[in-house]
Amino acid sequence: PRPPGLMWLQHGGGLRHTCERGDGPARYGWVMHDGENFGVQEIRDGRLLLRTEFVKQPGGDHGGDWSWRVTARMEGKGPAPLLSLFFYVATDGQGELRPVLQNGTRLAAVEGTSEELGNFTLTFLPATGEGEEGPKYASYNFLAAGVPGLHRLTDLVQHSLRDTSLFSPPGRPRRHYLAVSGTGGLPGEPPRGQLLLHQVTLEAPAVLEVVLESGSAAGARRGRLAGQALGAALARHAAAFERRFEDTFGLGARGVTLPQRRFAQAALSELLGGLGFFHGRSLLRSEHHSDPLPGPEAALLTAVPSRSCFPRGFLWDEGFHLLLLGRWAPALARDVLAHWLDLMNADGWIPREQILGEEARARVPPEFVLQHSETANPPTLLLALERLLPDAPLPYLRRLFPRLRAWFSWLNRTQAGPEPLTFRWRGRDTDAERFLNPKTLASGLDDYPRASHPSEQERHLDLRCWMALGARVLAALAERLGEPPEPYSDMALALSDNTLLERHHWAPELGAFADFGNHSTAVALRWHHPAPVPGRAPPAPQLRREVQEAPRPRFVGALGYVSLFPLLLQLLRADSPRLPVLLGAMRSEAQLWTPFGLRSLARDSPWYLQRNTEHDPPYWRGSIWVNMNFLALRALHRYARTAGPHREQAAQLYRELHHNLVTNVFRQHKATGFLWEHYRDSDGVGQGCHPFAGWSALVVLAMAEDY
């Protein structure tokens, strides 16, 4: 079953449930979360402040007992609207729920059974006032309904609301409010599971508690975790979280201010609070079949980039997530990594986006649902494994090794370039006339400029560097397991050869590392007006690409994140004559430097801040992205500590970039309450999705200077 969920309604406003982009709550996010047993979340919705807290009490065979506390307060002056809180539990085709009613209208408890939870009882305690106050006047309503799918819960509840109930506090005026009707469903949609919902309508301030007690934990239970006992447990867990956070990251010892430490705790907690367990089938297109096919049943434990925009697993994002998760909870990070590798098919391919089941699919635009079996994604999981490797148990690594070999072999085979030791991302956009520069979604850098005319002659610099990292990590893993490190160590050596790297990717005319391909330097988007058809409405004008110079094989002059990859993944020798050139481009305000972090594309690039189509604004064409800035800090930190002629230049750049990035991400969080997907290079303002506590939470490791 879906564990207890929460919706709320300020009467006169709209029903709130799932995190949606642009949904309106001024701020929301976890301020403390340990990833397992405890969390505190704050939600600001207009004048309403909701604080949700939970504690898990392990025991028995099904995860133990859980207790939740929801505190509602109204800020500011003036009459407060009535508030309804909807607590629900639902099944999706498996499990059974039985309501326990009090006075025929109040859902006092739910008794249930499921494979995952065994027998359990979920108890909804009566509302109380804040602090030590006694019972709080409230009206109660109850809904039992069939559910066509968990993705339809919001619509089902919205459909069942009726303006027929009265809120009648003693000695106070009576008020109408929207309440759920007793039974129902969505017309024309056959039910697949059950919903039981408990509506509590009251005036804030108020406290509500919900307790889930596992049948298999009865012998270990020391009493119900509610009221004062729950308050004491929450205080103990909060103190333990504070101690563990300082022991792990040492920000207090580094002199980081209390507001910045609170911000770092919230950034980590948002990542941990986004961990989810997903189940279902992906929709796949394989080279072996002409029609899309559902993939096998899959289960995935993963963090997500954003609860509002991207509430699902992304392959290259997850490697960055695991850098932070692995520092906080290494065993949990290893579990997540193993889940991802279990998604591999027989060929060694892992779909880059995990859209498992109807609920996940309902949040994805149709054009992105289908996963193509030739499309790769950067193997950032190996970046995380490199950090986890020294302390990971050998039996765990032995189980991983065959899968990692298969994955790396698939990448090496399917993404091979036109010459030995060169590589090419497959799956670039094929309708070249639509795009200023056809996207390369496989690279993770979506609209970053590549060769203007996709071809089999392309050599992609970033993919070559990712393959070098992969070979290095697999060689280290083989040695740890006592296996022959060849051919991985040989491949790592060849791909790290700076002379060969320059032959394939150094562009003398650009003074930078670059992609190579069939490329025109004179392309532009122009409005085209199709010829009118007699008797029909005039056709809409179209923005199409015009090529004003024929393409030819050449290096692609797009200075930006891709150009830095030999530095970012530390392939350049510390004495390389190319290193100061890259450091200079990073520090140049005409190119990549801003007071807020490194921009993704040089300001003097012809693609800088250019739209890719009429409907595609610039994405990786100037904005500041935390994951790439983190890789830059990590590399500069190493070059600053390695003997070589550019050591001091790297150290100075590191200090300035560290200050700029951390200061801006903190400042934007303070102003808005969110981490953001990327940041505007002109003023540092957060852009794109929010909250984005995926790789933007790497700011915590940057603050700790833990690379």
TrEMBL record:
<keyword id="KW-0325">Glycoprotein</keyword>
<dbReference type="GO" id="GO:0004573">
    <property type="term" value="F:Glc3Man9GlcNAc2 oligosaccharide glucosidase activity"/>
</dbReference>
<dbReference type="Pfam" id="PF16923">
    <property type="entry name" value="Glyco_hydro_63N"/>
</dbReference>
<feature type="domain" description="Glycosyl hydrolase family 63 N-terminal">
    <location>
        <begin position="6"/>
        <end position="126"/>
    </location>
</feature>
<dbReference type="InterPro" id="IPR038518">
    <property type="entry name" value="Glyco_hydro_63N_sf"/>
</dbReference>
<keyword id="KW-0735">Signal-anchor</keyword>
<keyword id="KW-1133">Transmembrane helix</keyword>
<dbReference type="InterPro" id="IPR031631">
    <property type="entry name" value="Glyco_hydro_63N"/>
</dbReference>
<dbReference type="GO" id="GO:0005789">
    <property type="term" value="C:endoplasmic reticulum membrane"/>
</dbReference>
<dbReference type="InterPro" id="IPR031335">
    <property type="entry name" value="Glyco_hydro_63_C"/>
</dbReference>
<keyword id="KW-0326">Glycosidase</keyword>
<keyword id="KW-0472">Membrane</keyword>
<feature type="domain" description="Glycosyl hydrolase family 63 C-terminal">
    <location>
        <begin position="227"/>
        <end position="705"/>
    </location>
</feature>
<keyword id="KW-0378">Hydrolase</keyword>
<keyword id="KW-0812">Transmembrane</keyword>
<dbReference type="InterPro" id="IPR012341">
    <property type="entry name" value="6hp_glycosidase-like_sf"/>
</dbReference>
<dbReference type="InterPro" id="IPR004888">
    <property type="entry name" value="Glycoside_hydrolase_63"/>
</dbReference>
<keyword id="KW-0256">Endoplasmic reticulum</keyword>
<protein>
    <recommendedName>
        <fullName>Mannosyl-oligosaccharide glucosidase</fullName>
        <ecNumber>3.2.1.106</ecNumber>
    </recommendedName>
</protein>
<dbReference type="GO" id="GO:0006487">
    <property type="term" value="P:protein N-linked glycosylation"/>
</dbReference>
<comment type="function">
    <text>Cleaves the distal alpha 1,2-linked glucose residue from the Glc(3)Man(9)GlcNAc(2) oligosaccharide precursor.</text>
</comment>
<dbReference type="InterPro" id="IPR008928">
    <property type="entry name" value="6-hairpin_glycosidase_sf"/>
</dbReference>
<dbReference type="Pfam" id="PF03200">
    <property type="entry name" value="Glyco_hydro_63"/>
</dbReference>
<dbReference type="GO" id="GO:0009311">
    <property type="term" value="P:oligosaccharide metabolic process"/>
</dbReference>
<comment type="similarity">
    <text>Belongs to the glycosyl hydrolase 63 family.</text>
</comment>
